[in-house]
Design brief:
mainly beta; Neuraminidase; 4-stranded antiparallel sheet; 25 strands; globular; disordered N terminus
Amino acid sequence: MTKTVGLRGMISMAAGLLALVGAGSFATAAPPGTPQEPTVVVSFDPALAQLPESMTSDNDGNLYASNRLGAIQKIDPQAGTFVTVARVPLPARAVLTGIKLGPDGLLYVASASFSSTPSGAFLWRVSPSTGAVQQFAILDPNGFPNDLVFQDDGSIILSDPFLAQLWKIDTAGHTSVFLADPLFAGNPAAPAFGIHTFGIDGIAWDHDKRNLIVSNFDFGRVMSIPMGDNGTPPIEIIVEDPALIGADGIAVDRRGTIWCAVNTQDRIATVDKKGAISEIAQGSLLENPSSFAFGTGEHDKKTLYIANFAIGRFLAGQTAHPGVLSIPAPVPGLPLL
């Protein structure tokens, strides 16, 4: 049912990305104000494949980044330092995508591939303290497991932009389709990455977990899925706009504002409860921003941390600056659990 209101891991797509990075124009809605200039928190080495596709946080103020070829970095944003805490044994041509810290204190990180042979579509469980890695769930090899959230019972909802659906994964690693809808599909007429469509992508809870907020990468669409008990929930389009094409990771703050990492346009934008868009930061240090985590430390709860993926410049053979950036936020973010 629908009601109208409005990556991961890049392999062998340098040409398509080169033409797209920085493309597009900010088009509509609320006056953007003065765009902010991000601050560099840590810099990664692209030559070591330290390209942070997704990011999460723990309750002690640490950040964790899933890097393209399997490494997971723990970041101390106050000290501006990081260490590699685990390496996921990825199949050939697979890459890491979304990462979240689970209620059990373990990291859950998805992997995906543009090729179904061998399959790269898995969910992994990782100990941030010991580095132990376990393959937790096996998913459809034709899909592209992407971003994830946890339900109160410990089960996981995982976005899949290739299959235009949300997966549900229970606490034993069993998988089922939670919801599929045409609004989750990518745009074959104008895929934002050129070589493949990307549909439903970022995912986050709103206040009290009453609604799932999701993005559609190709269409620049932000949607809300009410989580009621009356069968299949309706999908509400909060906004759809060219200014959001390439919307990758999302986060929600305590005011209900949705923060969007607009990957292919090197932009951070917000969407308010009425669907009005504001540009928060653009260009300069931003290179394919792909994910967010609000600060959880004593002094950084009003700080938004940004995974600077930099995949387009890297694959195009340009100078890339992957790492973690930050900008101040007016209010803290909602908890990730």
